[in-house]
């Protein structure tokens, strides 16, 4: 536990949440950590789009309590005037323009979408995602702007056929949307249904050449990327919490593939001419360890100039996740880590997506 370093005012759109059954910690006048008293639970902030947390809340974990809900908790405090501040950094304050959930007519747009395509299974799935889970990318599919999700790999999905996917995707791109994306992390791995995705991409590109067709993946089936590229895929993001094989395999617990497959997929995507990104799941205390940064910089060294490093708060119980990867490698802090990335990987474009869909 340490005093706040750089803090920013609590951003508009941030959500304050109590860390149930976790006693709050503070610093006394001598700078020593102490509990803040009975009945005072720790709190965290879930930051809005365009922000990245730089420190975790301080609290006493209760081993007998269930794990915290998997979210991206950031440390919260107060300034000398009693105003709330948070340990985070703002990458792009305009990013909230892509957040369609606040639209005043969203409910009407969802109803209209169901009326227009009453038998389309993907539409029904997206309505549930937008209405029940407040997914911005699902909402955007009905608002006709920015990026729209195409959740075809969800276990509970009704497996929409390629033509239903293409119908919605082409309408989004022709209607002003900029991107359609397979593989939001909440829905499973799209490369496991690569034939469905391949057919859908081909059907989308048969209807429109506007916008970007994107895929987010864990990289577990690198051989499938060639078929998707030939069908019309434009860009791909590889989701990972670490570029070190031992950390990756400990936290992701891959089934049927290894980190070597992820590396092969990344190299293959570059060879295929896809626009490539690494979606890094950031956890203060882990991501900022020197060995982790060394591995990340080495992994991304061969990516073309202009490739993107997407920084995304990992959704996890922070103390319990860190307990899995104990190390003598002392964290440098997220702000110094970001500066090191800017200096040693200047070919990468850094962006932040702080409302995480990604889970380890």
If you had to describe this structure to a student in words, what would you say it looks like?
With 360 residues, this protein is of the alpha/beta class. The chain has 2 domains: 8-91, no CATH class; 94-352, Aldolase class I (TIM Barrel, Alpha-Beta Barrel), CATH 3.20.20. Helix content is 32%, strand content 21%. It has 11 helices and 16 strands. It has helices spanning 106-116, 121-132, 136-143, 162-174, 194-207, 224-231, 245-252, 259-271, 290-300, 318-323, 334-344; strands at 8-9, 15-27, 33-35, 41-46, 51-53, 59-60, 76-78, 84-86, 88-90, 147-149, 179-182, 212-217, 235-240, 275-282, 308-313, 349-352. The strands form 4 sheets. Strands 10-11-12-13-14-15-16 form a 7-stranded parallel β-sheet. Strands 2, 3, 4 and 6 form a 4-stranded antiparallel β-sheet that branches. Strands 1-8-7 form a 3-stranded antiparallel β-sheet, with no helix packed on it. The chain is globular.
Give a concise summary.
With 360 residues, the chain is of the alpha/beta class.
Q: Extract low-pLDDT stretches.
A: 355-360
Distance between the termini: 24 Å
- Strand adjacency order, main sheet: 10-11-12-13-14-15-16
SS field, number of helical segments: 11
The gross shape turns out to be globular
- Could you give the order of the helices and strands? EEEEEEEEEHHHEHEHEHEHHEHEHHE
Helices and strands: which structural class? Answer: alpha/beta
Proportion in β-strands: 15-25%
Radius of gyration: 21 Å
- DSSP helix fraction: 25-40%
CATH homologous superfamily heading of the largest domain = Aldolase class I
Q: Can you tell me the CATH topology of the largest domain?
A: TIM Barrel
Average pLDDT value?
Answer: 89
| CATH architecture assignment of the largest domain | Alpha-Beta Barrel
CATH class of the largest domain: Alpha Beta
DSSP strand count:
16
């Amino acid at each position: 536990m340490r005093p706040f370093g750089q803090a920013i005012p609590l951003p508009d759109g941030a959500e304050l949440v109590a860390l149930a059954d976790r006693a709050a910690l503070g610093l006394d006048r001598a700078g020593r950590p102490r509990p803040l008293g009975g009945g005072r639970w720790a709190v965290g902030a879930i930051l809005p789009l365009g922000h990245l947390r730089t420190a975790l809340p301080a609290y006493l974990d209760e081993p007998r309590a269930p794990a915290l809900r998997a979210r991206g908790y950031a440390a919260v405090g107060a300034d000398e005037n009693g105003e709330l501040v948070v340990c985070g950094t703002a990458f792009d304050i305009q990013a909230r323009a892509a957040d369609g959930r606040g639209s005043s007519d969203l409910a009407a747009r969802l109803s209209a979408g169901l009326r227009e395509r009453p038998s389309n299974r993907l539409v029904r799935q997206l309505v549930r995602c937008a209405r029940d889970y407040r997914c911005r990318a699902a909402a955007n599919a009905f608002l006709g702007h920015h990026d729209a999700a195409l959740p075809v790999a969800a276990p509970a999905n009704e497996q929409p056929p390629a033509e239903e996917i293409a119908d919605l995707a082409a309408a989004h791109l022709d209607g002003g949307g900029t991107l359609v994306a397979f593989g939001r992390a909440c829905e499973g791995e799209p490369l496991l249904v690569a034939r469905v995705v391949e057919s859908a991409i081909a059907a989308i590109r048969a209807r429109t050449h506007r916008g970007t067709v994107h895929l987010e993946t864990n990289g577990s089936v690198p051989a499938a990327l060639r078929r998707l590229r030939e069908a019309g895929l434009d860009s791909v993001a590889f989701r990972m919490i670490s570029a070190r094989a031992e950390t990756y395999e400990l936290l992701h617990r891959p089934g049927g593939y290894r980190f070597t497959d992820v590396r092969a997929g990344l190299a293959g995507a570059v060879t295929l001419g896809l626009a490539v990104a690494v979606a890094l799941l950031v956890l203060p205390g882990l991501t900022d360890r020197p060995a982790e940064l060394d591995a990340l910089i080495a992994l991304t060294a061969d990516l073309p100039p202009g490739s993107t490093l997407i920084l995304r708060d990992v959704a996890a119980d922070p103390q319990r996740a860190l307990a899995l990867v104990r190390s003598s490698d002392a964290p440098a802090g997220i702000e110094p880590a970001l500066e090191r990335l800017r200096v040693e990987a200047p070919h990468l474009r850094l962006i932040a997506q702080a409302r995480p869909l990604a889970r380890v």
